[in-house]
Design a protein that fits this description.
single chain; 379 residues; alpha/beta; 5-stranded parallel sheet; 3-stranded antiparallel sheet; 10 strands; 11% strand; binds adenosine-3'-5'-diphosphate
């Protein structure tokens, strides 16, 4: 057993079965509280005299290494909601407030219309989006990757200082959250009351759109291999191609990813949108979202969105009748998917789609139109 203590204030019952016990109080007590140290020394002496316990310690760095060897799952921090516990909130600096965290996350997945939704939400006077990331010019991508280690102050900086009227409702969208192994757990630890929106389109179309997106971004592998070659690559294929294949196909395993989010968030906090409907009837979808968020001011999106025939999509209607649409990278023109790939993906996603339908039934949310069609056609 290892015993590590920086300073001790209150006598703490020693957990005998723990391999490592860490005792710590706030450092500020260290200089002032001699009684704490005295008590601790006495406690150690008592244990050495009256028990057969063998106490050991190590210098801090070695002890940390030993600790993380035993508890590798604790290597990653997990930022908790600082306002959950009044004592934590009280020691937080006065300028900081949990109102500066988002109350809504658009989690993706990529290529389902997340940017359009982000634009439409930003048109609502009561909703405020994050500032664009300096690195990606768009998404913050806090919960899924290395940014998480930059801490919650870094995250908060992406949102304006809340006004005192405090009807602020911040939101952010990072489309990679959906299929990230870690994002749901991390998001739920920091934002347990947040609402979560995901958009689902036919996973086959999503995979194809993603492939086209990679080609448009000059991904050399996506330029080298056809879509069919990417999705059908076997175990013998070059590793890089397999990696590309996973990135293309795995986000479409919707039920697996949804299950993960639902193991951290109550179903009433989660809204699943039909991406096809967002594309064709965005105003109706926005009505549904406003209800889900419980917004007091309801905006009539029928009046502020307009279909732009040139773009082929719904766009923001500006004063004077002009439209502001998403840039060239959204709603790209590319050839239809070949029928062999379509057939392959139908098979590939069949079980995942069946599981998704069960999951949606379980949480009482309607099946998207494309999912109904897939299920009907797969009989
Ligand atoms: P394509 O470019 O393949 O057509 P995301 O923003 O999540 O990356 O999704 C991009 C997709 O959003 C586009 O894929 C497009 O089909 C879809 N989309 C839905 N509504 C849109 C809109 N109003 N404007 C542009 N694209 C929209």
């Amino acid at each position: 057993m290892f015993l590590f203590f920086r300073d001790g204030l209150t006598p703490i019952p020693l957990p005998l079965y723990s391999q490592i016990s860490i005792f710590m109080t706030h450092l500020s007590n260290y200089g002032n509280d001699r009684l704490g140290l005295y008590t601790f020394r006495k406690l150690v002496k008592f244990l050495q005299t009256w028990t057969h316990l063998k106490l050991q310690t190590l210098p801090p760095v070695q002890l940390a290494q030993r600790y993380f060897q035993i508890f590798p799952e604790e290597r990653d921090p997990l930022w908790q909601d600082p306002c959950e516990d009044k004592r934590h909130k009280d020691i937080w600096s006065k300028e900081k407030t949990c109102d500066r965290f988002p109350k809504l996350l658009i989690i993706g997945p990529q290529k389902t219309g997340t940017t359009a939704l982000y634009l439409f939400l930003g048109m609502h006077p009561d909703l405020t989006s994050n500032y664009p990331s300096k690195e990606t010019f768009e998404e913050i991508q806090f919960f899924n990757g290395h940014n998480y280690h930059r801490g919650i102050d870094w995250y908060m900086e992406y949102f304006p200082l809340p006004s005192n009227t405090s009807s602020d409702f911040y939101f952010e969208k990072s489309a990679n959250y959906f299929d990230s192994e870690v994002a749901a757990r991390r998001a739920a630890a920091l934002l347990p009351k947040a609402k979560i929106i995901t958009i689902l389109i036919n996973p086959a179309d999503r995979a194809y759109s993603w492939y086209q997106h990679q080609r448009a971004h000059d991904d050399p592998l996506a330029l080298r291999y056809t879509f069919h070659e990417v999705i059908t690559a076997t175990h013998n294929a070059p590793l890089k191609l397999r990696v590309l294949q996973n990135r293309c196909l795995v986000p479409g395993w919707y039920s697996t990813h949804m299950d993960r989010w639902l193991s951290h968030y109550h179903p009433s906090q989660v809204l699943v949108l039909d991406g096809q409907m967002l594309r064709t009837e965005p105003a109706a979808v926005m009505d549904k979202i406003q209800k889900f968020l419980g917004l007091v001011n309801t905006v009539n999106y029928h009046k502020i969105l307009a279909f732009d025939p040139k773009k082929g999509f719904w766009c923001q209607l500006l004063d004077g009748g002009k439209t502001k649409c998403l840039g060239k990278s959204k709603g790209r023109k590319y050839p239809d998917m070949d029928s062999d790939s379509r057939a392959f993906l139908k098979e590939h996603y069949r079980d995942h789609n069946v599981e998704l339908s069960k999951l949606l039934y379980r949480i009482g949310q309607p099946l998207p139109g494309w999912l109904r069609e897939e299920l009907l056609n797969s009989r």
